[in-house]
């Protein structure tokens, strides 16, 4: 795998600023919008409303919890056990018909840690599947990039075959309280650099620029699934990438969220950030 370095301070400043914005969004419920000017109902109104909605809410909550529980049990993954060994484990990814059936980790100290360590934090040349700190474990980012070495993600290469791509269109990400289903909508080879540092995903404008590049850019072996030419900045994408420092190209396979079993994946979309502070010069 490749450890990427920032070429210009402003690039890192943008990423850090984006992380600050995203953190503020996450603190409000992974994108939940809060209107501070909203007039709060009286206690009596709240009680009456609660009484009217309790039955329906309890039923919906039970159905959602049962659905997530059933799907998680079918995977036979014990997140309590996994996180007791390593709290960096936040998800499990499974692509049917491939060798990609493994935990996903996120270090809070070093983005490159799982390039050289396995899921139990033991030194390993094969590393582990991981995301960087720029992505949040709630899976509510516009584009969550999951990295893997050639050994870990070797079966992604199958998606370069048009016939295989056409016949295999789904992968799953399991969270402790949710099951997410993604449709694989594109696969191609791009320049071997950091996607999170190449594009600005902090606002809608940057997300649209990325999608425009995917749709209209000339990439090696690019495939786009029929019916998937209209993604927008309101979607939730996961990019799976093979990181190989010896290669000039980087294979990426992208999925778009099509089912959120718990119904809690959400985020606030900002049209355009007016100002990004220069964190290197002490601007906050």
Short key terms for the protein model shown above:
alpha+beta; single chain; 9 strands; disordered N terminus; 2 domains; nine-stranded mixed β-sheet; Sortase, Chain: A; 284 residues
Compact summary:
With 284 residues, the protein is α+β, with helices and mostly antiparallel strands.
Helix content: 25-40%
Number of helices: 6
State the distance separating the first and last CA atoms: 33 Å
Radius of gyration: 20 Å
* CATH level 4 superfamily of the largest domain: Sortase
Q: Give the amount of beta strand, in percent.
A: 15-25%
Regarding quaternary structure, what we see is: single chain
Mean pLDDT: 79
Give a quick account of the main beta sheet: strands, pairing sense, barrel closure. 9 strands, mixed
Domain tally: 2
Under CATH, the topology of the largest domain can be stated as Sortase, Chain: A
Which CATH top level class of the largest domain fits?
Mainly Beta
**Strand element count:** 9
Write structural notes for this entry.
The chain is α+β, with helices and mostly antiparallel strands and 284 residues long. It folds into 2 domains: 41-76; 79-268, Sortase (Sortase, Chain: A, Beta Barrel), CATH 2.40.260. Helix content is 29%, strand content 22%. The protein has 6 helices and 9 strands, in the order H-H-H-E-E-E-E-H-E-E-H-H-E-E-E. It has helices spanning 9-27, 43-75, 79-85, 162-167, 195-198, 204-216, and strands at 89-94, 101-105, 129-130, 143-148, 170-175, 178-191, 220-224, 237-242, 249-260. Strands 1, 2, 3, 4, 5, 6, 7, 8 and 9 form a 9-stranded mixed beta sheet that branches. The chain is globular. Residues 1-29 and 32-62 have low confidence and may be disordered.
């Amino acid at each position: 795998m490749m450890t990427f370095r920032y070429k210009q301070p402003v690039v890192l400043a943008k990423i850090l600023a984006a992380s600050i914005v995203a953190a503020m969004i996450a603190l409000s419920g992974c994108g939940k919008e809060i209107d501070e000017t909203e007039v709060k109902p009286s206690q009596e109104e709240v009680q009456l409303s609660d009484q009217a909605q309790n039955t329906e809410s309890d039923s919906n909550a039970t159905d959602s919890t049962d659905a997530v529980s059933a799907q998680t049990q079918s995977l036979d993954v014990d997140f309590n056990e996994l996180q007791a060994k390593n709290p960096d484990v936040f998800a499990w990814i499974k692509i049917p018909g491939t060798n990609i059936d493994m935990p996903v980790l996120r270090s809070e100290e070093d983005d490159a840690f799982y390039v050289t360590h396995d899921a139990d934090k033991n030194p390993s040349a094969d590393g582990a599947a991981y995301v960087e700190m720029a992505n949040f474990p709630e899976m509510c980012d516009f584009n969550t990039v999951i990295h893997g070495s050639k050994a870990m993600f070797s079966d992604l290469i199958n998606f370069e075959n048009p016939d295989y791509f056409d016949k295999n269109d789904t992968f799953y990400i399991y969270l402790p309280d949710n099951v997410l289903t993604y449709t694989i909508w594109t696969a191609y080879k791009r320049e071997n650099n950091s996607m999170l540092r190449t594009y600005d995903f902090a606002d809608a404008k940057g997300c649209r620029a990325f999608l425009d590049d995917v749709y209209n850019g000339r990439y090696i072996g690019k495939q786009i699934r029929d019916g998937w030419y209209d993604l927008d900045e309101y979607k939730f994408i996961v990019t799976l990438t093979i990181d190989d420092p010896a290669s000039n190209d980087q294979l990426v396979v992208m999925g778009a969220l099509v089912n959120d079993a718990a119904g809690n994946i959400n985020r606030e979309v900002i049209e355009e950030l007016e100002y990004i502070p220069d964190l290197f010069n002490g601007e906050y």
